[in-house]
Design a protein that fits this description.
By secondary structure, this protein is mainly α. The longest helix is centred in the N-terminal third of the chain and has 37 residues. It has 3 domains: 92 residues, Fumarase C, Chain B, domain 1 (Orthogonal Bundle), CATH 1.10.275; 182 residues, Fumarase/aspartase (Central domain) (Fumarase C, Chain A, domain 2), CATH 1.20.200.10; 97 residues, Fumarase/aspartase (C-terminal domain) (Ribonucleotide Reductase Protein R1, domain 1, Orthogonal Bundle). It contains 19 helices and 4 strands. The strands form 2 sheets. It has a two-stranded antiparallel ribbon with strand order 1-2. The protein has a two-stranded antiparallel sheet with strand order 3-4. Strand 1 and strand 2 form a beta hairpin. Bound molecules: arginine. Arginine binds next to helix 7. The site of arginine has 9 residues, from helix 7. This is Argininosuccinate lyase.
């Protein structure tokens, strides 16, 4: 027995070159527990359909259990002659229970519905792990936001000083994006769960009175595919998960880039914890943000996984094509990458030491309170077009005199515009500025406290 699932119509065996090309056990072996679970459910369906005696059914289940135990113990291995995980497990099952009983299991199923079903099961498990890890990261971000309520930093657009914002507000912006990714994973999961491909056979369905709905439920699905061609040929579930994975990578890379910038001597906003940073082999003084840099780099890799997958799927005619064997490695890489990246990234974030004095010192620089002058004038009844010009004139004078906005004298103010008086100084502090932005979604401390509660609430309900 060579582990081949076909051969009757061939006069000779496949060439070694074909075997080498065709083989997928080096990456699909990890699907073993799912393949065994699918086989157990299938044996039950055959039994219920009257196609397996009680004795044969019990013997098959015993054999599958033995293989499961051997796999868990690390003692089950594919042979070089095995084409894929399905063929290898059939060979091993035949060795365990003998060809007469073992040879009955394949009735009514094809590797095409088999792989589509168990690939979904595998990805659902990993999507859940990734979602949990993203929520851990959200928790670390929320923890930092909570610890630094009140700290003010320079908010930026175009990486230039724009307006002062609360550090917590900035951090929570990352949390919201990550929560949407978890949301995406949850609705991806519900969509995948509704469509078990089991029973689709090679492409046309089964004639053996199997029980697709029952098997689907047994394997954790909520429904069974309505179209056997779609069930075996569709891989949008793979591409969609790769997209969400890439999106997580991109979202994490945005915070990563900030940590890299913030930890430079020029910024000095954060200090990395020793256990979550690295040194240099030649420069003794170095402390490098390797976790953040790897996060930034791995985002590129995750995008590559998605792009490669979509290229494989593009223009494939229905139904199953062997090209589809290429769907696994990219998304395995997606979940493997995220599962090793996210815990490290979370540890780095949780242990960041923020220099809030340094942030507060820089927050008003670059005339970041100019918008506050303009909006104060609007509240005084001045049209915004005029207010914008007036605030701009304030900045111009300050720049020329080498002073900052609060340093303008009462005489300067009156000279720039009659509506401008000493009362404007109320908003010319970073505290006054952030406190004034108290509309929904704004950076005022009262709003940010409320927001922190919303993030925590969202995170516990996802
Ligand atoms: N190992 C294949 C895959 O990953 C499944 C086998 C289907 N092969 C076939 N000749 N129909 O897609």
């Amino acid at each position: 027995n060579t582990g081949k699932l076909w051969g009757g119509r061939f006069a000779g065996g496949p060439s070694p070159e074909l075997e080498a090309l065709s083989r997928s056990t080096h990456f699909d072996w990890r699907l073993t527990p799912y393949d065994l679970a699918g086989s157990r459910a299938h044996a039950g369906a055959l039994h219920r359909a009257g196609l397996l005696t009680d004795g044969d059914h019990a013997e098959l289940v015993r054999g599958l259990d033995v293989l499961g135990e051997q796999y868990a113990a690390g003692d089950l291995r594919p042979a070089p002659s095995d084409e894929d995980v399905h063929g290898a497990l059939e060979r091993l099952l035949l060795e365990e229970v003998g060809p007469d009983v073992g040879g009955r299991l394949r009735a009514g199923r094809s590797r095409n519905d088999q792989i589509a079903t168990l690939f979904k099961m595998f990805l659902r498990d990993h999507a859940r792990v990734v979602a949990g890890q993203v929520l851990d990261l959200v928790d670390a971000i929320a923890g930092q936001a909570e610890q630094h309520l009140g700290a003010i930093m320079p908010g930026r657009t175009h990486l230039q000083h724009a307006q002062p914002v609360l550090l917590s507000h900035h951090l929570l912006a990352h949390a919201w994006a990550l929560l949407r990714d978890v949301d995406r994973l949850a609705d991806w999961d519900a969509r995948v769960a509704a469509d078990s491909p089991y029973g689709s056979g090679a492409l046309a369905g089964s004639s053996l009175g199997l029980d697709p709905a029952g098997v689907a439920a047994e394997l954790g699905f909520t429904g069974s595919t309505a179209n056997s061609i779609d069930g075996t040929a569709a891989r949008d579930f793979v591409a969609e998960l790769a997209f969400v994975g890439a999106m997580v990578g991109v979202d994490v890379s945005r915070l990563a880039e900030e940590v890299i910038l913030w930890s430079t001597a020029e910024f000095r906003f954060v200090r990395l914890h020793d256990s979550w940073s690295t040194g240099s082999s030649i420069m003794p003084q170095k402390k490098n943000p390797d976790i953040a840099e790897l996060a930034r780099g791995k985002a590129g890799r995750l995008i590559g996984d998605l792009a490669g997958l979509l290229a494989t799927l593009k223009a494939l005619p229905l139904a199953y094509n062997r090209d589809l064997q290429e769907d696994k490695e990219p998304v395995f890489d997606t979940v493997d990458t995220l599962e090793v990246l996210l815990p490290a990234f979370t540890g780095m974030v949780a242990t960041l030491g923020f220099d809030t004095d340094r942030m507060a010192e820089l927050a008003p620089q670059g005339f970041s309170l100019a918008t506050d002058v303009a909006e104060w004038l609007v509240r005084e009844g001045v049209p915004f077009r005029v207010a914008h010009e007036v605030a701009g004139e304030c900045v111009r004078r300050c720049e020329a005199a080498g002073i900052d906005l609060p340093d303008l004298s009462d005489a300067d103010l009156a000279d720039i515009h009659p509506a401008l008086h000493a009362g404007v100084r109320e908003v010319l502090t970073i505290e006054g500025s952030v406190a004034s932005r108290d509309g929904i979604g704004g950076t005022a401390p009262v709003r940010v406290v409320e927001q922190l509660g919303q993030v925590r609430d969202r995170a516990t309900h996802l």
